[in-house]
Specification:
Layout: H1 2-22, E1 36-40, H2 46-55, E2 61-65, H3 73-80, H4 84-90, E3 91-93, H5 100-114, E4 118-122, H6 128-139, E5 145-148, H7 157-173
Parallel strand pairs: 1-2, 1-4, 2-3, 4-5
Helix pairs in contact: 3-4, 5-6, 6-7
Length: about 180
């Protein structure tokens, strides 16, 4: 009996991992308008995607969550080849978060402070399920719609394996307040 239960759990885990790896979310349509754009730092192409959408007026403001304290807007403008004036007028840097969960806390606080009703969430495709779930949980009943807009990547097995387990653990721990 124990062997059957263990076998069932292993099979369930393997199917879940396969589903996770094969159904990574795809980028949202560029023509979709939101009140704000949020970029979670840490991955290639995230900031560039967010700034390009902001420059095309697809949102009013951009929030970069998880920015190191030493980073300045001028540096980001140079990195993205965008005018510094765009960063001065319409980009906010979040410096409080250190991980995905605190990204969600920092982002929700910023969205509430600006009274936004919709946000485009930008992170890497393999990171989106956990980031989206954490932000949705943090926003709770605020009725702020989230448009997931993942940046495509080609993650290796180790990245997918690690992220799948982080996602499972967050989903299991969240109801208990962790």
């Amino acid at each position: 009996m124990i062997l059957r239960i263990f076998s069932f759990l292993v099979m369930l885990w393997a199917l879940g991992f396969a589903l996770f790896a094969l159904t990574l979310p795809r980028p949202a349509a560029d023509d979709r308008q939101t009140d704000a754009i949020v970029v979670l730092t840490g991955g290639k192409g995230r900031l560039e995607r967010g700034v390009a959408l902001l420059a095309r007026h697809k949102a009013q403001r951009l929030f970069v969550s998880g920015t190191q304290r030493t980073v300045r807007k001028k540096e980001l403008a140079l990195r993205t080849h965008m005018p510094e004036a765009l960063f001065d007028c319409c980009v906010d840097l979040g410096r409080e978060s250190v991980d995905t969960r605190s990204n969600a806390v920092e982002t929700a606080k910023w969205l509430r402070a600006h009274h936004y009703a919709s946000v485009r969430l930008i992170t890497t495709d393999w990171h989106m399920p956990r980031a989206h779930a954490d932000l949705a949980r943090e926003l709770g009943k605020d009725h702020i719609s989230i448009l997931p807009d993942p940046v495509r990547s080609e993650p290796g097995f180790a990245t997918l394996f690690t992220e799948y387990h982080k996602y499972i653990l967050r989903r299991l721990a969240a109801p208990f307040g962790y």
